[in-house]
UniProtKB/TrEMBL annotation:
PANTHER family: FORMYLGLYCINE-GENERATING ENZYME, SULFATASE MODIFYING FACTOR 1, 2
Chain ranges of the Sulfatase-modifying factor enzyme-like domain: 41-315
Listed SUPFAM superfamilies: C-type lectin-like
Gene Ontology MF, one: formylglycine-generating oxidase activity
Gene3D superfamilies documented for this protein: paralog of FGE (formylglycine-generating enzyme)
One Pfam family from the record: FGE-sulfatase
Protein name as catalogued: Sulfatase-modifying factor enzyme-like domain-containing protein
């Protein structure tokens, strides 16, 4: 087991990758759009046009955040928050889906959230603050000795294929990187964060759920949360989207690769074959450790990796049904 500075990795083990396919018997229920009448959308319209991707003010050169380029995107619709536990539970109840973490029997939990009964759990070499916890899953994020997952929280311990299957069932998909950044900017243009350019700090400005204090031992939780926050917490950006910075890493549709033909870029892409791209950072990010809660920041991980700070958000190519109403459970605007 290894990982980047941001997330632990199962390492792309061949046995784990082979387990990514949905179990026989429920494939018909997970076909594209099968849950469109069951999943309760809570989304907003994102206007298309010229979108910015990357930055000319890079902070982590090794991630090739620069240069900033322009791309055209079409109109799309994006969930206001990351997929919640309640939304994912509806998917599981409708299809019988079993996540990869459940099939493999374990997932990664941050050390300060590990129940006392698991105090001797195996750590990750080089990332000792992560622990392998048997039985940690989307509905028991700390393992069987921890509390059940709360409905309003982002669903975590989600592998890339789990996220893709939910999105297809819901009639949507995972976003492309340019779509994710376009949505995160909220109409503000070339900004560092969804709210603008002001940096969060450890004193009096906490607009998102990240780490405050001395990582990895002391989390002051000045933003109100020691772990994940509800999917609709903190002020939304200009498009009405919550937690595009911090809270949980979000899987995207794309492989992790850098936009560079340099020798270093080619080496990174060769070493990253098979990895998928994640955006947004998490509640464990801090400027001194993992300054990846900026819009242009990015990381990659093997698609079989699951952890307590990794989830996803769904986008849609089609508008919701005409005249949606909150009574029907659809809140798209």
């Amino acid at each position: 087991m290894a990982g980047s500075c941001c997330a632990p990795s199962r390492g792309g083990d061949s046995a784990a990758i082979a387990s990514l396919a949905p179990e026989t018997g429920i494939q018909d229920d997970i076909q594209a759009g099968a849950g469109a009448g069951v999943h309760l959308r809570d989304c907003v319209a994102i206007p298309g046009g010229t979108a910015l991707l990357g930055t000319n003010r890079p902070e982590i050169p090794a991630d090739f955040e620069a240069p900033q380029i322009k791309r055209r995107v079409k109109d799309f619709w994006c969930e206001r928050g990351a997929t919640s536990v309640a939304q994912f539970r509806r998917f599981v109840q409708a299809t019988g889906y079993v996540t990869l973490a459940e099939r493999l029997g374990w997932s990664f939990v941050f050390h300060t959230h590990v129940p006392e009964e698991n105090a001797d759990a195996l750590g990750v070499m080089g990332l000792e603050w992560w622990r392998r916890i048997d039985g940690a899953t989307w509905d028991r994020p700390q393992g069987p000795h921890g509390a059940p997952a709360r409905d309003e929280m982002p669903v975590t311990h989600i592998a890339w294929e789990d996220a893709r299957q939910f999105a297809a069932w819901a009639g949507g998909r995972l976003p492309r990187e340019v779509e994710w950044e376009h949505a995160a900017r909220g109409g503000l243009g070339d900004v560092i964060y969804p709210w603008g350019d002001q940096d969060p700090n450890d004193q009096d400005f906490t607009p998102c759920n990240i780490w405050q204090g001395d990582f990895p031992m002391t989390d002051l939780a000045l933003d109100g949360y020691h772990g994940t926050a509800p999917v609709h917490s903190f002020a939304p950006n200009g498009y009405g989207l919550h937690n595009m910075s911090g809270n949980v890493w979000e899987w995207t549709a794309e492989p992790f690769r850098v936009r560079s033909a340099s020798s270093a870029g080619r080496q990174i892409n060769q070493a990253s074959v098979g990895k998928k791209l994640l955006k947004g950072g998490s509640f464990l990010c801090h400027k001194s450790y993992c300054y990846r809660y900026r819009i242009a920041a990015r990381t990659g991980n093997t698609p079989d990796s699951t952890s307590a700070h990794t989830g996803f958000r769904v986008v849609y190519d089609k508008a919701p049904d005409p005249a949606p109403s909150t009574a029907s459970g659809c809140c798209c605007k």
